[in-house]
């Protein structure tokens, strides 16, 4: 049986992306704001994100190709019952960083706070 971390690694970014859009748009945020958050975390602009979706890359590949923001470690708190800063698996932690940013966007947090610009 696959572990939680293995399932996350194999999941495609393309399979989760529509859920991110639906989540933020349902709360009155925009796809552009979602892309701003993704770009801040990964360095991928909108075209690069679309290329990742078209290629149906796994989260493992997605984050291997990403250039993680140097302030990503400032993303803390609970997501899906896990404390982000205590997640041992580096890939799972990066995926949870993204989940947390999407959550914060959907909850109406100000962009400066989400992007950890203090």
Task: Please tag this protein with its features.
7 helices; mainly alpha; 118 residues; two-stranded antiparallel sheet; single chain; globular; UCP033199; Helicase, Ruva Protein, domain 3
Q: What does the model show?
A:
With 118 residues, the protein is mainly α. The chain is built from 7 helices and 2 strands, in the order H-H-H-H-H-E-E-H-H. A two-stranded antiparallel sheet has the order 1-2. Strand 1 and strand 2 (82-83) form a beta hairpin.
Name the helix and strand elements from N-terminus to C-terminus, one letter apiece: HHHHHEEHH
Strand order of the largest sheet: 1-2
Radius of gyration: 13 Å
Oligomer: single chain
CATH architecture: Orthogonal Bundle
**How many structural domains does the protein architecture include?**
1
Count of extended strands: 2
What would you give as the CATH superfamily?
Answer: uncharacterized protein sp1917 domain
Could you tell me the strand content as a percent range? under 5%
Q: Report how far apart the termini are.
A: 42 Å
Low-confidence stretches: none
> How does the helix and strand content classify structurally?
mainly alpha
Major sheet: size, sense and barrel closure? 2 strands, antiparallel
Average pLDDT taken over every residue: 95
Q: What name does the CATH topology carry?
A: Helicase, Ruva Protein, domain 3
Compute the number of helices. 7
Report the helical percentage: 55-70%
Overall geometry comes to: globular
Please give the CATH class: Mainly Alpha
Pfam family, one: DUF2200
């Amino acid at each position: 049986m696959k572990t939680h971390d293995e399932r996350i690694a194999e999941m495609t970014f393309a399979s989760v992306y529509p859920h991110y859009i639906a989540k933020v748009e349902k709360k009155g945020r925009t796809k552009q704001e979602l892309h701003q958050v993704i770009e801040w975390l990964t360095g991928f602009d909108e075209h690069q994100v679309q290329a990742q979706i078209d290629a149906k890359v796994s989260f493992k590949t997605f984050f291997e190709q990403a250039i993680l923001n140097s302030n990503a470690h400032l993303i803390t708190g609970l997501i899906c019952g896990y404390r982000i800063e205590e997640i041992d698996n580096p890939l799972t932690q990066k995926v949870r960083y993204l989940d947390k940013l999407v959550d914060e966007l959907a909850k109406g947090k100000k962009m400066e706070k989400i992007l950890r610009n203090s």
